[in-house]
Amino acid sequence: MSIEVQNISKNYGTQKALDAISFTVKKGEIVGFLGPNGAGKSTLMKILTTYINADEGQASVNGHDVKAAQKDVQRSVGYLPEHNPLYLDLYVREYLAFNADVYKVGKDRIEEVIALTGLTPESHKKIGQLSKGYRQRVGLATALLHNPDVLILDEPTTGLDPNQLVEIRDLIKNIGKDKTVFLSTHIMQEVEAICDRVIIINHGKIVADNNIDNLMTEVTVQTIEVEFDKAVAKELFSQLTHIKDFTNTTNTIWELVFATEEDMRPAVFDFAQANGLKTLQLNLKNKNLETIFREKTK
After folding, report:
1. Which of 25, 221, 228, 280 has CA atoms 20 to 30 A from the CA of 142?
2. Same-domain check for residues 82 and 106
């Protein structure tokens, strides 16, 4: 296994950031690590990259224990933290050369990672002159310098515009063809596009661990988007059977969540008629990773 986590717990004072979590990641997998803000994602990534120690449990990367063999873990891992630390006054090649010295790798590797991460057009500039997207590429290039077997990426596309996001997403997917990638993100489309498997964490506990297709079958909720011709008092929705949640998204448009696989559109239509309402649109929304995430983290 590339990553093994066994009963890892971590406390910050009275707050339990991680609560006896366990999972494994096989060599060659691209795994999305999801959870709300404060769920414990970055804490676990810092433990796996030896920045902090767990209070309880064991973890290993590439067969190396994160406490007993920290240097071996660091050689095995390429890490891009959430807040990409860069020396903005250095030129791209200058910065990569500095890190190449730290990793004790040859200078020829600098040109390889520049080409691999698409940095060539901007490689003559200072890092401070680069766009957010290219700065993320510099961070990825740095993480790849020593050709690690495992990449741990914490929010690698934070703050990117749609074009930059697609570019970095494609880059990660390409890199992941021969490496293990463990990444956290809040962008569900990103996970659906590049990940083989998803682990969802909430309040320090794992609440889901499966491939995306299997996760779809785990959630037995149904979401219907309906637009009425006038405002509706939310108290009326209690008339609907199997209703689990309802959200007023825009004016007279509501998102209704039902805890059943039965098609509830006829019931919503009947509800409208019974209450003197007209349905201007009535759509059954497909299950997607966002639906699953919301269900698992409530």
Report:
1. 25
2. yes
78: left (phi over 0), alpha (psi -120 to 50) or beta: beta
Same-domain pairing of 241 and 195: no
Rounded CA separation 76/217 (Å) = 35
Total number of domains in the chain:
2
Alpha-helix residue ranges (DSSP H) falling in 49-161: 70-76, 92-103, 108-116, 132-144
Report how far residue 57's alpha carbon sits from residue 17's, in angstroms, rounded to the nearest whole number. Answer: 14
Q: What is the pLDDT of residues 136-150, one digit of tens each?
A: 899 999 999 999 999
64-65 and 205-210 strand pairing:
unpaired
What is the rounded distance in angstroms from the CA atom of residue 145 to the CA atom of residue 90?
17
Quickly count: other Cβ atoms within 10 Å of residue 46's Cβ: 18
| End position of a domain, from candidates 184, 212, 240 | 212
Predicted TM-score (pTM) of the model is: 0.81
Among 56, 50, 57, 60, residue whose Cα is nearest residue 25: 60
DSSP state of 127: G
CA within 13 Å, CB half, 110? 18
Half-sphere exposure of 80 (CA within 13 A, CB side): 26
| Residue 240 amino acid letter | L
Which tokens sit at 261?
């696989």
